[in-house]
TrEMBL record, chain A:
Major location (coarse): membrane
Keywords: ATP synthesis, Cell membrane, CF(0), Hydrogen ion transport, Ion transport, Membrane, Transmembrane, Transmembrane helix, Transport
This protein's name: ATP synthase subunit a
HAMAP family recorded: ATP_synth_a_bact
UniProt family annotation: Belongs to the ATPase A chain family.
InterPro entries on file: ATP_synth_F0_asu (IPR000568), ATP_synth_F0_asu_AS (IPR023011), ATP_synth_F0_asu_bact/mt (IPR045083), F0_ATP_A_sf (IPR035908)
Membrane topology label: Multi-pass membrane protein
GO CC terms in record: plasma membrane; proton-transporting ATP synthase complex
Function recorded in the entry: Key component of the proton channel; it plays a direct role in the translocation of protons across the membrane.
Any GO MF annotation of the entry: proton-transporting ATP synthase activity, rotational mechanism
Subcellular location as annotated: Cell membrane; Membrane
From TrEMBL, chain B:
InterPro entries linked to this entry: ATP_synth_b/b'su_bac/chlpt, ATP_synthase_B_chain
Pfam families according to UniProt: ATP-synt_B
Primary role: F(1)F(0) ATP synthase produces ATP from ADP in the presence of a proton or sodium gradient. F-type ATPases consist of two structural domains, F(1) containing the extramembraneous catalytic core and F(0) containing the membrane proton channel, linked together by a central stalk and a peripheral stalk. During catalysis, ATP synthesis in the catalytic domain of F(1) is coupled via a rotary mechanism of the central stalk subunits to proton translocation.
Annotated localization: Cell inner membrane; Cell membrane
Name listed for the protein in its UniProt record: ATP synthase subunit b
Keywords annotated in UniProt: ATP synthesis, Cell membrane, CF(0), Coiled coil, Hydrogen ion transport, Ion transport, Membrane, Transmembrane, Transmembrane helix, Transport
Any one Gene Ontology molecular-function term assigned to this protein's record: proton-transporting ATPase activity, rotational mechanism
Topology versus the membrane: Single-pass membrane protein
Main location: membrane
Keyword ATP-binding: no
Stretches assigned to coiled coil: 90-161
Subunit record text: F-type ATPases have 2 components, F(1) - the catalytic core - and F(0) - the membrane proton channel. F(1) has five subunits: alpha(3), beta(3), gamma(1), delta(1), epsilon(1). F(0) has three main subunits: a(1), b(2) and c(10-14). The alpha and beta chains form an alternating ring which encloses part of the gamma chain. F(1) is attached to F(0) by a central stalk formed by the gamma and epsilon chains, while a peripheral stalk is formed by the delta and b chains.
Length: 250, 202
């Protein structure tokens, strides 16, 4: 248990709450969700509070993230997709901040919990479905019928399209979850090597240098992954929203 | 507040072997872990799902509302304001440039006009000078020719008088010569006639 690399994903209650036999305790996971929201919203709020015509450094970071997501959504889902901007921007900032907060030692990584990423993915797919049917009615089903496919192949293609559509929430959530989980486990394992080799004396300390270098390199990689996964999540969200805005347009 | 349980997760296990005391301090949280850590991989521990879902909905919902109501309009407004301002500044710049161009054009026009005027003034002055010179020359020439003709008239007059006197001198001389040669007085009428005849022959 002492060097258990999965221990960092353990959820512990801080304020036990139980409603109707269900456990709704305020846990370390909840705490870091609150911290994520506080960091992201606080940063965006205070960095833009001066509304400078010439932005300060913090304000230009906030503006860059805004324009980054805005251009991503405009390219992915067209100008009609811009009504989903608050949603995509919230998802991106939430996932990015949660990933980056998770990089602090001893901090809990909200996005390393499959239930969290799955809930976010369902939120995206649910939005696509609800908006798609609300806006286009049954025409939304054109999503499953690509244009220009020969009639003979159509049933097969439609079946494939349906399966791919159904697998979207799974792939979207598992991608983020697995990346964060695997990265943190790897980091923990290699840094565990440093400690256990270092305990062996002089030779062990010499041998511990290799996993130490590895840990440093992996930390850099994990920062990249933290950003990349938030980016991928946002890009895929834009692509899926494009289906809701322009069904059959692919 | 959140460092204590977190420390219990990572710090205590790492030091657990050598620092038993440190491990004991955190037994409380260690027990809490024990409840969940019953061999189930933590992210797949379904007993934590309701709590995570509830708090995710609360926190993400709040975050979404803040983004939608406050941040997105504000940042969008900042960017739009800047965009407008830049466009306005560009308009102003092109307006000023047009003004400058117009000023340059009028300047050049005025310069050309002034140049033309200067040229015409010079031409006029030259023409006037030329005319005056011509007039002066004409008047001087006229004066000179008047003087010339007066002088010629005087010469003619003197010549005529001289000629006339030549007649009387010749008559006197002829009378004197005749008187000396023949000792006879020739009548003035005869001498005059003879001189006139000689004059005609000459």
């Amino acid at each position: 248990m002492s060097n258990d690399p999965t221990h960092q994903f353990q959820i512990s209650k801080i304020v036990p709450i139980e409603i109707g036999g269900m456990d709704f305790s305020f846990t370390n996971a909840s705490l870091f969700m609150v911290a994520t929201v506080a960091c992201a919203a606080g940063f965006l709020y205070f960095s833009t509070s001066s509304r400078g015509l010439v932005p300060s450094r913090a304000q230009s970071v906030a503006e860059m993230s805004y324009e980054f997501i805005a251009s991503m959504l405009r390219e992915g889902a067209g100008s009609h997709g811009m009504k989903f901007f608050p949603m995509v921007f919230s998802l991106f900032m939430f996932v990015l901040t949660a990933n980056l907060l998770g990089m602090f030692p001893y901090f809990f990584t909200v996005t390393s919990q499959i239930i969290v990423t799955f809930a976010l993915a369902l939120f995206v797919i649910g939005t696509v479905l609800v908006y798609g049917f609300y806006k286009h009615g049954l025409h939304f089903l054109n999503v499953f019928v690509p244009s220009g496919v020969p009639g003979v192949l159509l049933p097969l293609v439609v079946a494939i399209e349906i399966i791919s559509f159904l697998s979207r929430p799974i792939s979207l959530s598992v991608r983020l979850f697995a990346n964060m989980l695997a990265g943190h486990i790897t980091l923990k394992v290699f840094s565990g090597f440093v400690v256990s080799l270092g305990a062996l004396g002089a030779i062990g300390i010499g041998g511990a240098i290799l996993p130490l270098i590895m840990t440093v390199a992996l930390t850099g990689l994990e920062f990249l992954v933290a950003f990349l996964q938030a980016y991928v999540f946002a890009v895929l969200t834009c692509m899926y929203l494009n289906d809701a805005v322009h069904p059959g347009g692919h | 507040m959140f460092v204590t349980p977190a420390f219990a997760q990572d710090g205590a296990p790492a030091n657990g072997e050598t620092h038993g005391a440190a491990g004991n301090v955190h037994t409380e949280t260690g027990v809490a872990h024990g409840e969940h850590g019953t061999g189930v991989f933590p992210p797949f521990d379904q007993s934590t799902y309701p709590s995570q879902l509830l708090w995710l909905v609360i926190t993400f919902g709040f975050f979404y509302l803040v983004m939608q109501k406050v941040i997105v309009p504000r940042v969008g407004g900042i960017l739009e304001h800047r965009h407008d301002r830049i466009a306005q500044d560009l308009d102003e710049a092109s307006r000023l440039k047009a003004e400058a161009d117009a000023a340059v054009e009028t300047y050049e026009k005025e310069l050309a006009a002034a140049r033309a005027k200067a040229g015409s003034i010079a031409d006029q002055a030259r023409d006037a000078a030329k005319a005056k010179a011509a007039a002066d020359r004409a008047s001087i020439e006229a004066e000179l020719s008047a003087k010339l003709s007066a002088a010629e008239a005087r010469i003619a007059d003197i010549k005529a008088r001289a000629f006339a006197e030549v007649g009387s001198i010749a008559e006197d001389t002829a009378a004197a010569i005749v008187d000396q040669l023949i000792g006879a007085k020739a009548t003035p009428e005869d001498v005059k006639a003879a001189v006139a005849a000689a004059k005609v022959e000459a």
